[in-house]
Task: structure prediction
Amino acid sequence: MSTLWQGLVQTIQLLLGGDPEVWDITLFSLRVSGLATGISLFIGLPLGTWLALGRFRGRSFLLSVVNTGMALPPVVVGLLVSMLLWRSGPLGDLRLIYTPSAIIIAQIVIAAPVVTGLTVAALQQLNPRLQTQLLGLGASRLQMIWALWREARLPLLAALMAGFGSVISEVGASMMVGGNIRYQTRVLTTAIVLETSKGEFTQAIALSAILLLLAFLVNLALTWIQQRGARR
Result:
């Protein structure tokens, strides 16, 4: 308990004291995971909409692939992305391994299936007659899709929160493709692993508390938006 208490005290000291390295790691984690989540939403929202509304051969197979992707272990994603980005890999000439871009790519692979799968679930919960009614009222297909997104905005925001949560908390992929390089690719999760391996448990607890606080604040903002939309 004393170690836990010391870690919490150190958390306050790090935040109030403005430790430059801790703030750099925290802001870098937020920037990388936020960008990865945004790109995953850009990919997953239209893809999930297509899978939810479309009726075509192979749809069940694609849904199975997406559902499997939602459970992909981050360490497996890290290995696959590393193999692609190694100098001997097919994308080795891009020199992206051990860079922030590599972490973003890995996190997109993790978050995109989550956003896609939850988008499918959100849209499939709507009344199927709603599409017919919208089209019957003269709406174009794009207008119909926009109306469905608005109708399902609450679970779609939940999909966004789930996507962000899946990447801000992962460690395996970031460690493997980013290398945990100080001031370059170190995020909160990899910093926690490093401090734990060094036996600096107080520092590890402090960083863990900052990670939880960061995740809470982001999800608090998204939840506020979600519930505000629910009251309309």
The chain has a mean pLDDT of 86. The longest helix spans residues 20-53. The radius of gyration is 20 Å.
